[in-house]
Automatic annotation (TrEMBL):
Entry annotated with the keyword Ligase: no
Transmembrane segments: 6-22, 34-55, 112-133, 290-308
Organism: Cecembia rubra
Domain of life per record: Bacteria
Listed name of the protein: BlaR1 peptidase M56
PANTHER family given in the database record: POSSIBLE SENSOR-TRANSDUCER PROTEIN BLAR (PTHR34978), SLR0241 PROTEIN (PTHR34978:SF3)
Family matches, as InterPro entries: Beta-lactam_resp_regulator (IPR052173), Peptidase_M56 (IPR008756)
Family annotation (Pfam families): Peptidase_M56
Keywords on record: Membrane, Transmembrane, Transmembrane helix
All copies of domain Peptidase M56, residue ranges: 187-281
Length: 579
């Protein structure tokens, strides 16, 4: 059993690593779907495959290594690790006293194998029940709402106002939105692509595997990768059906922007997924590169076949942690001098030594630049405009805001005790899904942040379900303070207290290749600094309430202007400037 877990986990990890690093960046979505599903089945079946005697020397050597490893794992050692008690001999050889307070345990052997199997089947039962409840919930949803037979699929009209989604050959939409034709045809076509390509069956397969191998966290990564690739496939279908690619991409950006504004924490994942989708829509890969990647995936499968099936355990993979270089430390130190004392994630431009920052930045290589906080304003044109803007202080007070971490939350004792007793919730600790029993291993003071969300509302004879997300202090500090910071907005305040703000985070979804030549206009950063320096808010028309957010993609961008201490605000479009 232990050997099976090591082999299958190693294979899953290597397959996922190749996908995450190489294949996920290429526009070969159909191949990626085949790769992910095949990798799952191959990795779990690999330990049971008997390799034919085609390379005897390799097999003999690998068998020797595996046999040596197995001989080094006696049951007594495992018991000593898992039972931290002191066992002493007594005159009666059939009994042993286990010193743990006042408790005594009779017998000379601890039934370790039975306990492990008991834990496994208990987890299998819990996850299976959870999966069956999810299926039953979907069945009730179908039964309690009216349906329309559309031929190749069935339309389910929901009473609630929700975004369209699919399951098997059912398309779920809001009754109100459907009757008023408020659902965009591109969105409907996107969901129908999920049905035609039978994406639900992939997810059902992964959910079944999660029930059987509930202890393997790599299955969660595979599920996320498969779901994201489904979105790529559906987007690819929509772009083939509709000629106006920019309109579809703008539709996605508008939807995620509204989510971001209303729910800054919960929309982070949606924003990331939409960014990936927009990038992959315009991705064009070289045919030769794709050929080499496909061959590479085949050779990886062959490598695992000739090693793991022959009972060979490889060298320890270990962890390669790149140490922070002196240049990275120097850059971060110079940047930290500009952070506000009241708001530690807000840079005050007038405090920065831009020339020193620029010199250090150009001394870094590409790998080192990926380790620093985001501040890429050092090309000639942008840097010149940034210097001019800095010189406008104090007339123009410029601030650059980074992603702000949520405030720490202390868990009250009664709430923590209630969580320990709950059975209708999912548990995530440090961004990893954990069995709920894992909460017993922690004290409430070990957590720096928590978030509770209702994942399924209360229904007749069914309690509401929740998701509990927890962060330990170390993970919180590492995620928000030690990791490179990302710019969200760039703002300026003027003598009349008017303010201008640019949502710079849209920069992260700019596509380098594809149907849209430039999602963000040329000279984007330089144009931001130019307009923030030269804007005259008195000349802007605040009386006309007609939205001007539908700017020309690739030629204009938006700046939000606020007047009278933010009592009046409007979004204006500004052109890209040619310098």
């Amino acid at each position: 059993m232990i050997l099976f877990l090591i082999k299958s986990t190693l294979a899953l990890g290597l397959f996922y690593g190749m996908y995450h690093i190489l294949l996920s960046r290429e526009s070969i979505f159909s191949f990626n779907r085949f790769y992910l599903l095949t990798a799952l089945g191959f990795s779990l079946a690999l330990p049971f495959i008997q390799m034919p005697q085609v390379i005897p020397s390799v097999q003999e050597k690998s068998n020797q290594i595996w046999n040596q490893w197995e001989l080094k794992q006696p049951a007594a050692e495992l018991e000593e690790v898992l039972i931290p008690f002191e066992v002493k001999e007594v005159p009666d050889k059939s009994l042993a006293v286990v010193e743990s307070g006042k408790n005594e345990v009779s017998g000379t052997k601890f039934p370790l194998g039975q306990v492990i199997m008991g834990i496994y089947f208990f987890g299998l039962l819990l996850f299976s029940i959870r999966f069956l409840m999810q299926l039953n919930g979907m069945r009730k949803l179908l039964k309690s709402n009216s349906q329309i037979d559309m031929g190749s699929y069935r339309l389910v009209l929901l009473k609630d106002d929700v975004l369209p989604f699919t399951f098997l050959n059912y398309l779920f939409v809001s009754r109100t939105q459907y009757n008023t034709s408020a659902i965009e045809p591109e969105i409907l076509e996107h969901e129908l692509a999920h049905i035609r390509q039978r994406h639900s069956w992939d997810i059902l397969l992964v959910e079944v595997l999660k029930c059987v191998f509930w202890f393997n966290p790599l299955l969660l990564l595979f599920k996320k990768a498969i779901q994201l690739n489904h979105e790529f496939l559906a987007d690819e279908h929509v772009l083939r059906e509709f000629e106006n690619h920019a309109s579809y991409q703008n539709l996605l950006v508008n939807k995620v922007s509204s989510l971001f504004g209303n729910h800054p924490i919960s929309s982070a994942f949606n924003f990331h997924v939409t960014k990936r989708r927009l990038m992959m829509m315009g991705k064009v890969s070289h045919p030769m590169r794709l050929t080499f990647l496909k061959l590479g995936s085949f050779f990886l499968a062959m490598l695992l076949f000739f090693t793991l099936t022959s009972s060979k355990v490889g060298d320890d993979l270990g962890f390669f942690i790149s140490e922070e270089t002196e240049g990275v430390k120097k850059f971060e130190k110079l940047l930290s001098e500009g952070f506000s004392e009241e708001k530690p994630f807000v840079l005050e431009l007038q405090k920065l030594n831009l020339e020193a920052l620029r010199q250090v930045y150009f001394s870094l290589n590409e790998e080192e630049r990926n380790q620093i906080s985001h501040f890429p304003f050092f090309d000639e044109v942008t840097y010149e405009q940034l210097i001019l803007l800095q010189k406008e202080f104090p007339r123009v007070v410029t601030k650059i805001s980074y992603t702000t971490p949520p405030d720490k939350k202390e868990i009250r004792a009664e709430i923590f005790d209630l969580w320990l007793k709950t059975k209708n919730a999912e548990l995530f600790i440090d961004d990893e899904e954990r069995p709920f029993e894992a909460l017993n291993q922690f004290e409430r003071s070990e957590f720096a942040f928590f978030e509770v969300r209702e994942t399924s509302p209360k229904k007749f004879l069914k309690k509401p379900e929740y998701s509990i997300k927890l962060m330990t202090h170390d993970f919180y500090h590492q995620k928000y303070f030690e990791s490179p910071k990302t710019i969200q907005t760039i703002s300026a305040r003027y003598p009349n207290s008017d303010q201008a703000e640019v949502f710079y985070a849209l920069r992260y979804i700019r596509m380098e290749n594809g149907t849209v030549a430039e999602f963000i206009p040329k000279n984007f950063e330089a144009s931001i600094f130019h307009h923030l320096r030269t804007i005259d808010t008195k000349e802007l028309d605040f009386e006309n309430r007609r939205s001007t957010i539908n700017y020309v993609m690739g030629e204009q961008f938006s700046i939000s202007i606020s007047k009278d201490n933010k009592s009046q605000s409007k979004v204006f479009s500004f052109p890209s400037v040619t310098f």
